[in-house]
Design goal:
- With about 120 residues, the protein is of the alpha+beta class.
- The protein is built from three helices and six strands; from the N terminus they run ββαββαββα.
- Strands 1, 2, 3, 4, 5 and 6 form a six-stranded antiparallel beta sheet that branches.
- Strand 1 and strand 2 form a beta hairpin.
- The radius of gyration is 14 Å and the shape is globular.
Length: about 120
Amino acid sequence: MSDAFALILRPDASFKVVEFSGDSPADLGTIYREIDSPSIAVMDLSPKLSVWLDDDGVTGGTLNRPAIIIHAATKFVPHDYYGTAVYTGIDAENRTTGLTLDTCTALLELAGIDVPKIPHPRTN
């Protein structure tokens, strides 16, 4: 499956999956637009998973409980998330990459968000 997506997770548990290869300014622009903050931080949750968030969110953002649940499953140190969180991948050279749809689904399920099954396209 292609590693060409980012998961955008909002505090109200709404989400969207967007095309994201990680190797273009347009992809980074997507992260900045979705988080909508001049101060964005990235945190590695595992050797293959990063989360991008508003570094100043504690000063007035809305608590993002689904993102906190994902964090708790990947790190032992507690951390609060505020505002929108964007999940991307990491490659062996520590560069930002996309995620597979399966990884996006697994993250949502980990956060307790029901994800409808999308059937594979039919071929003749």
